[in-house]
């Protein structure tokens, strides 16, 4: 699988997880409909399925995925919550993405 496909898959996976968390948040904290738990559960199921599509060992995928999740959460903060990220939010996201790239695309002997 090419690097761009892996990154794209990570981005979609992170979006599925964030939506799966955000919808129950709306129900619990914002008083929205309990029916939001249905698409939240579907989103979490999609998240688990998407993680299984990566072409390397599960532990490596989970470790690298964390970096992409951090980046996507900061983008969610900006796009959905309407809060502009600080310089430190962006620097931290870049550091996390560099970590993901090292884990996923670094040379391997096995």
Number of helical elements: 4
Shape: flat
Number of strands: 0
Q: State the helicity in percent bands.
A: over 70%
Largest sheet: none
Strand content: under 5%
SS-derived structural category? mainly alpha
How far the N terminus sits from the C terminus, by CA atoms, comes to 17 Å
What oligomeric assembly is this protein in? single chain
What is the total number of structural domains?
1
Order of helices and strands: HHHH
> Low-confidence spans: pLDDT under 50, at least 5 residues?
none
Query: Could you report the average pLDDT, rounded to the nearest whole number?
Result: 94
Based on CA atoms alone, the radius of gyration comes out at 15 Å
Molecular structure report:
By secondary structure, this protein is mainly alpha-helical. The chain has one domain (3-105). The chain is 77% helix and 0% strand. The protein is built from four helices and no strands. Helix 1 (3-30) crosses helix 3 and helix 3 packs antiparallel against helix 4 (87-105). The mean pLDDT is 94.
Short overview:
This protein has helices at 3-30, 37-52, 58-79, 87-105. It is mostly helical and 110 residues long.
Helix-strand blueprint:
Blueprint: H1 3-30, H2 37-52, H3 58-79, H4 87-105
Helix pairs in contact: 1-2, 1-3, 3-4
Throw out a few tags for this protein.
110 residues; mainly alpha
């Amino acid at each position: 699988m090419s690097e761009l496909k892996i990154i794209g898959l990570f981005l979609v996976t992170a979006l599925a997880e964030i939506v799966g968390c955000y919808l129950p948040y709306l129900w619990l904290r914002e008083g929205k409909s309990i029916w939001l738990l249905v698409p939240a559960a579907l989103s979490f199921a999609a998240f688990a399925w998407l993680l299984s599509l990566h072409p390397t060992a599960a532990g490596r995928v989970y470790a690298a995925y964390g970096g992409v999740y951090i980046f996507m959460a900061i983008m969610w903060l900006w796009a959905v919550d309407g809060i502009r990220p600080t310089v430190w939010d962006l620097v931290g996201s870049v550091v996390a993405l560099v970590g993901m790239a090292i884990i996923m695309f670094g040379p391997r002997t096995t």
